Amino acid sequence: RVVVAEVVGVSPDPFSHEVIINKGARDGVQAGQAILDANGLMGQVLYTAAFTSRVLLISDSSHAVPVEVLRNGLRAILLGNGDIDQLELVHVPDTADIREGDVLVSSGLGGRFPKGYPVAEVSDITKDPGAPFVTIHATPMARLSRSKLVLVVFSEAGAAGPEELYDQQEENVPSAGEAVTDGEAN
């Protein structure tokens, strides 16, 4: 399930890559939901108000996305670096099978982003002699600074995520004081 939203604002802070959309808590939007445009993954909801939400873009220097190479399933972490047109694939060994032009899709690991959405395309690979990892740059598929309409992605109905399952387990476990009181009453 998705909801169409419009980008109605952009953060004026040059070091923060955030946009504001016109859907909020009254529309069921919650922090952590994935945001897509017509071309790929844009980011995730940071905060919601009644009528708007603040979205952190994948290019922000504090953002990371677990991805996999569509061609061979190689998994890695794609980091924002503060450049709206470039991302970095980190901790990839120099022996990994990755090529310029490879498409990176969301892997679904961590449960934050749905699996299989296009995220970026590998644009540059630099191998430094003696370095254990290669330097890989990728271009975002989403039009981060140009999209006007976006999709807010909702998880499948009835499927509890890791946080909900943990909360349910805590609700079913009595505290130490309750256990002793119940035992004495019987």
Protein model, in words:
The protein is mainly beta. The chain is 11% helix and 40% strand. It has helices at 162-172, 176-185, and strands at residues 2-10, 18-21, 34-36, 41-48, 53-57, 64-69, 75-80, 87-93, 103-106, 118-126, 133-140, 149-153. Strands 1-2-5-4-3-12 form a 6-stranded antiparallel barrel. Strands 6-7-8-11-10-9 form a 6-stranded antiparallel beta barrel. It is elongated.
Widest β-sheet, arrangement of strands: 1-2-5-4-3-12
Largest sheet: 6 strands, antiparallel, barrel
Distance between the termini: 48 Å
> What is the element string, with H for helices and E for strands?
EEEEEEEEEEEEHH
Could you list some keywords that capture this structure?
40% strand, single chain, 6-stranded antiparallel barrel, 6-stranded antiparallel beta barrel, elongated, mainly beta, 186 residues, disordered C terminus
Short overview:
By secondary structure, this protein is mostly beta strands. The chain has helices at 162-172, 176-185; strands at residues 2-10, 18-21, 34-36, 41-48, 53-57, 64-69, 75-80, 87-93, 103-106, 118-126, 133-140, 149-153.
